From TrEMBL:
Portion of the parent chain present: 481 to 772 of 845
Location of the protein in the cell: Cell membrane
Protein's name according to its UniProt entry: Copper-exporting P-type ATPase
UniProt family annotation: Belongs to the cation transport ATPase (P-type) (TC 3.A.3) family. Type IB subfamily.
């Protein structure tokens, strides 16, 4: 594209909330075969709320929520915020944990007094050899409804499940539909479990799902798609999306997300709306043809 075309394209982008950092990305975007979308904070609002509290036999919902909230008080993960907010709403008193360890992509471990608490996904419970049998069917049912179930245990015993759900962005379905109409393959990439991810993908209209991805594996999945000969645009908001944004042919950050994602990306969608991805493709095409 000519310098004038690039300049106009960049200006049009800015007017429409698409901040384009480099000319090259504007020229490359329209060539992408695949758009990879992070789930939490990209397809969804990224503000999960607790939907279900399912105590194991012999426990009360409040025991479960208090233990979980205490452990999560040390965490800044959106799932943690959902749990502490719910506990506060229920007027439960929960303490700051004495020690706390976040287990990336799996959950947290915390000590409160003499109690060791774990909260997280099935992989974490497997690592800790905690028996989840009594709640497995419930977890599956919750996940099939697009909710994220988290197991909570105290001193090696399962206390129950807390599920959270996140709202889909209002323009997610229409934006994904438009991308597909342009012949682009749309993939969802998430650290969440397979069933929850599939349920949300179905609602969103995404073609393919890559779930259970640990944060440091996201970039590898982009590289795998590239090795198949595909040009990849990645859209994400989180700290854990930054390496994938870097790896992608075009990295697009959600402007309501983390600074590191925006610093790494070639473009930022200022309004945080997914419609911005469609705008980026349209602008890129127009820039190459000098038609607006
Ligand atoms: P996402 O792609 O949703 O940002 P993460 O890689 O942060 O996923 O986390 C993957 C999974 O690990 C979550 O779906 C959840 O089951 C579990 N997990 C991570 N952090 C926490 C936490 N603070 N509390 C409970 N579970 C967690
Ligand atoms: Mg995210």
């Amino acid at each position: 594209a000519t310098p004038t075309a690039i300049m106009v394209g960049t200006e049009k982008g800015a007017e429409n909330g698409v901040l384009i950092k480099d000319a090259e990305s504007l020229e490359k975007t329209h060539k992408a075969d695949v758009v990879v979308l992070d789930k939490t904070g990209t397809i969804t609002e990224g503000k999960p709320a607790v939907t279900d509290i399912f105590p194991a036999r012999g426990y009360e919902a409040n025991d479960l929520l208090t233990a979980a909230a205490s452990a999560e008080k040390g965490s800044e993960h959106p799932l943690a915020e959902a749990i502490t907010a719910r506990a506060a709403e229920e007027n439960l008193s929960f303490q700051e944990p004495d020690s706390f360890r976040s287990i990336t992509g799996k959950g947290v471990e915390a000590m409160t007094g003499k109690d060791k608490i774990h909260i997280g996904n099935e992989a974490l419970m497997n690592d800790e050899q905690i028996d989840t049998q009594s709640a497995a069917a419930k977890a599956e049912e919750l996940a099939d409804n697009g909710k994220t179930p988290m197991y909570v245990s105290k001193n090696g015993r399962l206390l129950g499940i807390i599920a959270v759900a996140d709202t889909m962005k209002s323009d997610a379905v229409s934006s994904i539909k438009q991308l597909k109409a342009m012949g682009i393959e749309v993939v969802m990439l998430t650290g969440d479990n397979e069933k929850t991810a599939q349920a949300i993908a179905l609602q969103a209209g995404v073609d393919n799902v890559i779930a259970n991805v640990l944060p440091d594996e996201k970039a590898n999945h982009i590289a795998l798609l590239q090795r198949e000969g595909k040009k990849v645009a990645m859209v994400g908001d989180g700290i854990n999306d930054a390496p994938a944004l870097m790896q992608a042919d075009v990295g697009i950050a959600i402007g309501t997300g983390t600074d590191i994602a925006m610093e790494t990306a070639n473009m930022t969608l200022m309004k945080g709306e997914l419609a911005g991805v469609v705008t980026a493709f349209t602008l890129s095409k127009a820039t190459m043809r000098m038609i607006w």
